[in-house]
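Researcher: Next entry in the queue.
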Amino acid sequence: MSEPPPRGAERDLFRDTWVRYLGYANEVGEAFRSLVPVSVVWLSYGVSSSYVLADAIDKGKKAGDVPSPEAGRSTRVTVAMVDTFVWQALASVAIPGFTINRVCAASLYILGTATRWPLAVRRWTTTALGLLAIPIIIHPIDRSVDFLLDSSVRKLYPSVEKPSSS
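Model: Structure for this entry, 166 residues:
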């Protein structure tokens, strides 16, 4: 989770509380893919995607609440929402979901070829490996998405204050 906000700063519901963990639901779903029906995995993506959408809306509302000339308000709101949505969609859903999916698929395959363990043991081991990989992949993915957006889409934004999406 991110650093605690400075004293006197407003606490961000989507970044500084337990709600942040809803963004990891799809990674947990991917880790359990070999044990649960695929509908459960898709439900986990629904939870994560809802988190992403809610965070983008929240950041847009906060950007709209900043007192300033009305002419720049809609641009500021749009930039905040788009930046948050793209960042969260990549850093919380797409890239980590794909990564955990591949870690689990590879581990299940390797365990199947390298061991004589029963299928149930291989599936539970794969799930454990997927869950253990989640905290390891979070920060490198976050930093990579920051770099990607700073190098691409954020260069297109009008000269307004850079959104804080991570």
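Model: Residues 70-114 form the longest helix (45 residues).
Researcher: Noted, moving on.
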